[in-house]
Amino acid sequence: MNALAATNRNFRQAARILGLDSKIEKSLLIPFREIKVECTIPKDDGTLVSFVGFRVQHDNARGPMKGGIRYHPEVDPDEVNALAQLMTWKTAVSDIPYGGAKGGIGCNPKDLSTSELERLTRVFTQKIHDLIGVNTDVPAPDMGTNAQTMAWILDEYSKFHGYSPAIVTGKPVDLGGSLGREAATGRGVVFATEALLAEYGKSIKDMTFAIQGFGNVGSWAAKLIHERGGKIVAVSDITGALKNPNGIDIPGLLTHKDKTGKLADFSGADALDPNELLIHECDVLIPCALGGVLNRENADDVKAKFIIEAANHPTDPEADEILSKKGVIILPDIYANAGGVTVSYFEWVQNIQGFMWDEEKVNNELKRYMTRSFHNIKNLCQTHNCNLRMGAFTLGVNRVARATLLRGWEA
Questions:
Q1: Annotated binding-site residue? 216
Q2: Any known ligand binding at 243?
Q3: Is 379 annotated among the ligand-binding residues?
Q4: How many CB atoms lie within 10 A of CB 352?
Q5: Which residues are known to be catalytic?
Q6: Angle ∠(179,183,184) on CA atoms, nearest 5
Q7: 66: buried, middle or exposed (CB in 10 Å: 19+, 13-18, 0-12)?
Q8: Which residues form the active site (predicted)?
Q9: Residue 411: pLDDT band by 50, 70, 90 thresholds?
Q10: pLDDT at position 1, please?
Q11: pTM for the structure as a whole
């Protein structure tokens, strides 16, 4: 099942639990605006090349729309639509005053030079600058983009609208980016994990972890779990996978990856088949990579007791059912990976106020938001007698529905 179908299914289930009127249900599902643009740039060798860019603005009932821009060969309207909708529910779950959006360009950033990526980003910004805005739609980095990409968008947007640091989040700190933003998604995953384990009388230091994906989110989560005494017994990324039943030396592995660009040949762990990581022996599995990695083919073999969805949509609905029957506790993506958008909100607030926070304040506020959201989800799980995914979806959908009705848009 693709990401859009799965997201729609979760939304409809939440709408049923909440008893939403069919008119409001339909209006919440339909995106506010879908944008498709052709981005033609000269390559370094002088030839012209074209890429298709998308921006889906899903809902703005609770505030400006918010969502990342990804550069990836598989960017398509369905995926962007699903992720935009997920952002609507995610910002509502975290109770930050945003709606949802998502964007992307169908390209492989590895095939483009830095100057080509800059030209592509500037052309994309030229095409959408009048449809985004500090109080309309605020982009952020996603897969294949980073702080530098945001700096180019900020610069290009400012040519049309004057200096506007709050137009994007995830910027370099020198251009008004927030301290703590780079680690925010991984740190939020750790705060979410702590909140969940506390419900079961456990803490990170009591548990073993397997982490799929050792990019920004996975490596920060690994570092922070290691610092709290958690034992990381397996990690993987696109370059390979490693295991060590006694726990991997994460600071050593981070140094090794910085030097070599890959996980392979690290002396402190043995090689592992990357496909085995998801079914490796551990207490807590944290998928931090692409969607759909847990499916009906491998769900039966998952040994973890807890799954923390640091990636977007890592668990197919079929896998969800299999894992639930096995008693596996899944902390859903629309809550678990909301640390990034929460600190993006803090960055936006700082830019609007023109007053920057120190990193300790950012991290303390993030912990407060993540912990509060978890308890709100748990309360709804008890109210509706449902699992954490439906607890999160009912929380998010209900907040957006209430805002929509209060604004008088149901007609």
A1: yes
A2: no
A3: no
A4: 12
A5: 102
A6: 80
A7: buried
A8: 102 (proton donor)
A9: very low
A10: 61
A11: 0.93
